Structure formats: structure tokens, C-alpha cells
């Protein structure tokens, strides 16, 4: 069954989604939600919305999709059980191995794997299914052919509308290392939406260089249906109720094969960043990056004429009090404006900025539209018939369910009860979202019921009927099982190094990171005496994996931050080094992970990492800190004029410079590194050094064990999260 899945950042958004006809909603609680800045739900609000959703057959999915630290495990498991027992239709998780534990212990739970887990090919889908997940939410970057393969393996959910993350799902650490607020912990401060310059001709001007336009798949939803997708997700737990309503209505129209042009117009007015992109499933496209305008751009409605010192907008659009506008000049934002009065052929604007003839006007707040979008209230149809016979209990039947009163119908002494008395009484639905209609009302000619008894009976009937309709159907979990014991093993003291060239380096494990994955790069391992691993990006399509298998066969193993690598390594009978992108942060996950080596999450402090230390563990101790994987070209695929350097510099408005590395997997991709290199404390386990950005990796590796020398070598360095916990 195909469903439209809507965001519910708070109670009002949940109501908007339900009233607009959403088939399902997703929401977060006040803990463990990857959108902690949304309103979210406490237990009472969740219970209220859950009941209303069940009344209309709307499913509820609860997002508990943050990484979970060791000291949070008990609370996390108890919260998951409480959510299940409260009637959630599914729980959305990021930690695939924590999900495997929950499913093993509590098979009643239905689990969906978050887009933060980065499922982008068939290998990741098979792992998710074997870990007990019922559905995967495909990474936004997933190609259409891979979506089709995933959908053959497991039920698939795909984004169709809303904000796009700059970084590949689950691999963004820019907010974490640049500001101490982790996106993987629900605290993202969206540094990708800030202005940056890049040291390439034509890109030196500060602009929103890595801020992506909003996704709007639109009519291409039919291609996703043909690929086997069953759930179509609207992003936006941080957005307003009118946006939720407009988006649901738009996609309901498209699925119903109705004309949705007016609904698209409404959607543009409620939220539209960058005039929309179809997304990477359908190619990058010209609107992929919204470099000139940040935030809501609205819908174009006319141009400015300066008439007698006033700003007039010639427009066929009827506007009114309360409407708001954004003014653009040559593609860049000038400022906001407000409706200032009607005029023949258009309307006047008030604006604090000085406007010019030809400035373009976009409507961003349409007051009458917003009122219309939120004006409809969804009601549950109830058909009532009744029977009143003297000497018997009064009976009513609601949608086939019979209720009998605890009082007896009397013989009238004066005026008998009438049909209108009964219909008038049961037309009062109190707080219940019922639309009441009446069937047969049978009355003895002289039957009498006191109105106080009839009203009390109505309240009892409606309460029971509502509770029956909205009762939680989940098989209850009665007890919490003990968590796995923490590892008591000691750590290893091996060293592992990530470098673009392993020649001349000395380490126990060498991880080669090629500049061109389709080239002949094995020679870059020449003379390296340790184990040789090939670095695989966290995102690879199925076709790309197929092309890389011959190269992988020459190495001892693969290093990867993507979950798909677990089954890929097993298939190729190669060792697996689970990289930092696995976001391993608790011992429960380790008890299910099958890897020869693993990197502890780089967002854990050394103290938090203690519970994960064993004979396979490594901790990022020095070098560059990769903070983003970009599965797109920030230069808008201007290949014919590109200088194709290995490194660029992304500079923010504070003067901080972030290395931007270009590499190729057929097409170009990019990695972003933190503005400061890492010189951390020596961990009590294996040490991982990332020398991707080093001009002289041999020199850096030679002093890697001497923290003071490393600090002096880097100059402007950071200690990372070794001592300071991330939020």
C-alpha cells in the first residue's frame, strides 16, 4: 500500500497532516530525536495525537534516530518500549546494530532504519533486513536503479519533498566540530546554510556555496512508484503547519492523478528554498544549489515599479493584509516587504530597503491561503440508529456496534421522547471528531427517557466507541531485559593510517584513499609493509561497487564508513575495518557488528570510549577530521571550465578555512575537512591517523606519537572531542 508520510514537529503540525489526509506521520519525543529543535512531543501530547491518528487509520512512526552513548542505553531501551506500548506503528532508528538488539529482545517492535544509516545500495538493504528492520528510509542521494534494487529486498521509504542535507546521510560532523553541536545527536546548527567562498575563479565571492535547494520530486513520484517505493516522505519537522498541509495535499493530488498545479503554487508559498530540485535520484540539475538565496523564496508574483515614491507591484495575484514578500534583485535577496494596499492592476508594498524598478517580488506569506490550508477539520463518519421500547433498555447502534443503556425506557406520563430529541442529543459530539448521521430511529409511541439519562448514556457510548476505535493494538512488552555486559578486553596499540599514498609510510594498517577510483592505484601501496586496506566512500552505488570489485580483490581488506561494507566484505572474503562513519557509540552495537577492526565514533570523548575498547578498536588520534561527504559537485558540474585541482579551500565569513578535496568515482565527488587538524590525546587502544590532507604524510606520521611535536607541526590545531563531550 502506498502512503504519504508527513512530518509532525509539534501538535499543530500533526493535526495539519491528519486533517490534510496524510496516511502516516512521523514525530519525535523530547529525547533521542534527530530534530531536537522541533517542538516534539511529551507523553501526554503523544498519547493525544496517537489516539486521533488511530481514529483515522493514520500510522505513527516515532523517530529515535540519534546515536546513543553508553550511559544512555538504559533510558533509550525503556523509551523504545514505552513508545511501542503506547501504540507507535514503528520506531525509526539510526543505529542499525542497536536495532538488531531491540528486535532480538523484543520481536514485537516494528523498526524502520533512518536515512541517517545511509542505505544506498542492495548490500545495505540486505543488512537492514537481516538486522530485523521492516523498512529502510533510503539515503537522499540514492540512484533510481539502486532504489529499485533496495525495494526488491525490503520495504522502502523515499523523500519526495523538503530540505536536503549537504552531506551524505549520517556522515556530517561540521556542526559537531565547528560548533560542538552534533547533527547525529539532533543538535545540528546548520553551518551548511551559511555563506562561504571557494578559492576557484568565479567562486571567490561569499555566497551560500553549499546550501542545497529544497527537494520537490513532483510528477517524478511515478518513477519512484515504478521503482517499488511504498512510502513517500515529506521532510519538515522544523516547518509550519500550513507547509505540512500544502505538501500533503499536493502529493495526494499527484497520486490521485489529479491536476495539482494550484496545489504546487500553494506549496511554493508555504516553503520553497531555491525554486526546488528533483534531487540526485534524477540527476544534479541546475537548481541543486541555492547559492544566492537562503531560506524561503516563495512564489514569483510580479516586478517593482517605483511610482511617485511608492513601490507598486503589477500582478494578477490578489494580495491582502497580512501577506509577506521577498524582493530579489539580479537573483540576490534585497529584503522583505509587506502588503501596503490595493491598486489597479496590482498592489503597493512597504519595504525598509530601497527598491528599484525591475526588482522581482515573491510572495512568501499568503494569509488567506494559510487560513484555507488550516481551516479543514477531518471527521470520522458515524452512522447511528436507535431503538426505544417501553420496559426495555434503550439501544443505539454506532457503525454496527450495539450499546444498551443501564436504565429502562419508561412509559410517558406527559410528552413522550421524540426522534428529534434523540438526534439532537447524539449530534452533540463533545470533543470527539465525529460526523454523525442517522439511520432508523424506532420509538414506542409513548416511550419516555429523561434527558439527563440520555445525555449521560451518550457520553458513555461515545467514550467507549472512541476508546475502541483508538485502542493500541500492539502486543505489549511487559519487562526490560538486561543489556549485554560491557567488554572487559584491553585495547590494542596498533596504528592505522589513512593516506592518498602509502609509499614511505610505516603503520600496522595502511588505508589507501585514491584520488581516482577507476584508475590503477595499487602501486601507491608499493613498499608498505603493514596490512593494506582500500578506503571506500560511505556512498557507492551498486554499479560503482561492481566496477571496484577487481581493485578490492588486491587488498587485504576494506575500510569504510558505510554500513553496506559489512556484507560487501563478507561477499568478497575480505577483512573489514568499520570506519568512523559507522558512528559506533555503545557496546550493544559492538555485540552485533561483524568487523575485524572498527573506529570508535569521533564524537565520543576518551572516557566515553572506554566501554568500546577491545582488541579491535581504534580511535581517531590525529590528522584531518573529515566533516562532510558531498555526493555532488559544488561547482554545478561546470566540467569544461573546471581546473580539477585536488584541493580547494572553503572559507567562512569568520575567515576559517576548510579543505575541500576532490576525488573521482567516475564523476567527481568532494570531501570537506575541519578547519583545524586534530592533535588529540593518545588513546588506550589502536590509533587512527587521517593524513588525507597532508602535503608530507611521511613527516606527519613520523611524529604522530609525540603530541607536543604534532601540535607544533600543525600550529592551529584542535583536540577534538577527546575531552569535551559533544551535545
Low-pLDDT segments: none
The proportion of strand residues reads: 25-35%
Q: What is the domain tally?
A: 4
| Number of β-strand runs | 36
Mean pLDDT: 95
Amino-to-carboxy terminus distance: 39 Å
Could you describe the largest sheet, including whether it forms a barrel?
8 strands, parallel, barrel
The shape, in one word, is globular
Based on secondary structure, the structural category is alpha/beta
In CATH terms, the superfamily of the largest domain is Copper homeostasis (CutC) domain
Instruction: Specify the helix fraction band.
Output: 10-25%
Describe the structure.
24% of the residues lie in helices and 27% in strands. By secondary structure, the chain is of the alpha/beta class. The chain has four domains: 3-164 and 212-281, Copper homeostasis (CutC) domain (TIM Barrel); 299-373; 380-470, no CATH class; 495-625 and 676-718, Aldolase class I (TIM Barrel, Alpha-Beta Barrel), CATH 3.20.20. Helix 5 crosses helix 15. The chain is globular, with a radius of gyration of 30 Å. The mean pLDDT is 95.
Amino acid at each position: 500500500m502506498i502512503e504519504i508520510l508527513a512530518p509532525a514537529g509539534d501538535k499543530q503540525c500533526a493535526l495539519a497532516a491528519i486533517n490534510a489526509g496524510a496516511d502516516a506521520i512521523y514525530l519525535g519525543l523530547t529525547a533521542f530525536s534527530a530534530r531536537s529543535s522541533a517542538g516534539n512531543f511529551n507523553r501526554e501530547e503523544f498519547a493525544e495525537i496517537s489516539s486521533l491518528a488511530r481514529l483515522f487509520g493514520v500510522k505513527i512512526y516515532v523517530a529515535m534516530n540519534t546515536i546513543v552513548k553508553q550511559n544512555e542505553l538504559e533510558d533509550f531501551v525503556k523509551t523504545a518500549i514505552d513508545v511501542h506500548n503506547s501504540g507507535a506503528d514503528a520506531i525509526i532508528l539510526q543505529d542499525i546494530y542497536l536495532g538488531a538488539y531491540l528486535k532480538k529482545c523484543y520481536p514485537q517492535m516494528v523498526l524502520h532504519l533512518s536515512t541517517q544509516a545511509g542505505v544506498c545500495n542492495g548490500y545495505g538493504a540486505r543488512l537492514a533486513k537481516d538486522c530485523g528492520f521492516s523498512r529502510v528510509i533510503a539515503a537522499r542521494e540514492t540512484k533510481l536503479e539502486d532504489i529499485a534494487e533496495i525495494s526488491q529486498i525490503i520495504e522502502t521509504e523515499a523523500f519526495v519533498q523538503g530540505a536536503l542535507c549537504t552531506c551524505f546521510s549520517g556522515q556530517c560532523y561540521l556542526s559537531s566540530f565547528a560548533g560542538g553541536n552534533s547533527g547525529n545527536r539532533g543538535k545540528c546548527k546548520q553551518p551548511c546554510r551559511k555563506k562561504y567562498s571557494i578559492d576557484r575563479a568565479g567562486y571567490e565571492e561569499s555566497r551560500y556555496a553549499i546550501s542545497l535547494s529544497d527537494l520537490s520530486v513532483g510528477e517524478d513520484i511515478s518513477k519512484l512508484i515504478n521503482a517499488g517505493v511504498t512510502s513517500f516522505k515529506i521532510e519538515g519537522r522544523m516547518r509550519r503547519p500550513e507547509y505540512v498541509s500544502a505538501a500533503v495535499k499536493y502529493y495526494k493530488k499527484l497520486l490521485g492523478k489529479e491536476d495539482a498545479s494550484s496545489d504546487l503554487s500553494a506549496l511554493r508559498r508555504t516553503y520553497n528554498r531555491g525554486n526546488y530540485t528533483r534531487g540526485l535520484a534524477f540527476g544534479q540539475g541546475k537548481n541543486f544549489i541555492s547559492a544566492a538565496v537562503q531560506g524561503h523564496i516563495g512564489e514569483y508574483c510580479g516586478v517593482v515599479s517605483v511610482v511617485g515614491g511608492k513601490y507598486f507591484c503589477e500582478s494578477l495575484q490578489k494580495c491582502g493584509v497580512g501577506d509577506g514578500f521577498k524582493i530579489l534583485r539580479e537573483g540576490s535577496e534585497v529584503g522583505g516587504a509587506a502588503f501596503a494596499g490595493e491598486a489597479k492592476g496590482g498592489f503597493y508594498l512597504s519595504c525598509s530597503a530601497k527598491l528599484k524598478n525591475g526588482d522581482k517580488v515573491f510572495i512568501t506569506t499568503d494569509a488567506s491561503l494559510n487560513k484555507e490550508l488550516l481551516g479543514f477539520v477531518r471527521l470520522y463518519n458515524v452512522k447511528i440508529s436507535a431503538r426505544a421500547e417501553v420496559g426495555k433498555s434503550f439501544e443505539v447502534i454506532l457503525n454496527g456496534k450495539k450499546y444498551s443503556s443501564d436504565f429502562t425506557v419508561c412509559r410517558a406520563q406527559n410528552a413522550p421522547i421524540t426522534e428529534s430529541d434523540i438526534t439532537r442529543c447524539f449530534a452533540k459530539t463533545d470533543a470527539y471528531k465525529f460526523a454523525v448521521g442517522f439511520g432508523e430511529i424506532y420509538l414506542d409511541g409513548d416511550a419516555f427517557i429523561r434527558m439527563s439519562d440520555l445525555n449521560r448514556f451518550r457520553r458513555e457510548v461515545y467514550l467507549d466507541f472512541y476508546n475502541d476505535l483508538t485502542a493500541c493494538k500492539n502486543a505489549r512488552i511487559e519487562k526490560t531485559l538486561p543489556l549485554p555486559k560491557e567488554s572487559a578486553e584491553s585495547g590494542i596499540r596498533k596504528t592505522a593510517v589513512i593516506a592518498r599514498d602509502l609509499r614511505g609510510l610505516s603503520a600496522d594498517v595502511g588505508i589507501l584513499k585514491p584520488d581516482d577510483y577507476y584508475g590503477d592505484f595499487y602501486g601507491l601501496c608499493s613498499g608498505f609493509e603493514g596490512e593494506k586496506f582500500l578506503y571506500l566512500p560511505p556512498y557507492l552505488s551498486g554499479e560503482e561497487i561492481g566496477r571496484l570489485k577487481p581493485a578490492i580483490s588486491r587488498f587485504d581488506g576494506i575500510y569504510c564508513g558505510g554500513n553496506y561494507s559489512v556484507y560487501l566484505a563478507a561477499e568478497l572474503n575480505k577483512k573489514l575495518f568499520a570506519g568512523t562513519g559507522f558512528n559506533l557509540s555503545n557496546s550493544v552495537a559492538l555485540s552485533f557488528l561483524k568487523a575485524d577492526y572498527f573506529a570508535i565514533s569521533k564524537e565520543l570523548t576518551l572516557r566515553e570510549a572506554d566501554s568500546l575498547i577491545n582488541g579491535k578498536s581504534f580511535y581517531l588520534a590525529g590528522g584531518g577530521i573529515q566533516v562532510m561527504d558531498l555526493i555532488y559537485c559544488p561547482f554545478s558540474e561546470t566540467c569544461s571550465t573546471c581546473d580539477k585541482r585536488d584541493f580547494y579551500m572553503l572559507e567562512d565569513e569568520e575567515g576559517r578555512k576548510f579543505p575541500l578535496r576532490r576525488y573521482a568515482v567516475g564523476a567527481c565527488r568532494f570531501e570537506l575537512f575541519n578547519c583545524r587538524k586534530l592533535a588529540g590525546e593518545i588513546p588506550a587502544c589502536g590509533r587512527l591517523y587521517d593524513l588525507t590532507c597532508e602535503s608530507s604524510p611521511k613527516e606527519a606520521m613520523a611524529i604522530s606519537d609525540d603530541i607536543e611535536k604534532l601540535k607544533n607541526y600543525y600550529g592551529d590545531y584542535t583536540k577534538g572531542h577527546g575531552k569535551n563531550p559533544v551535545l
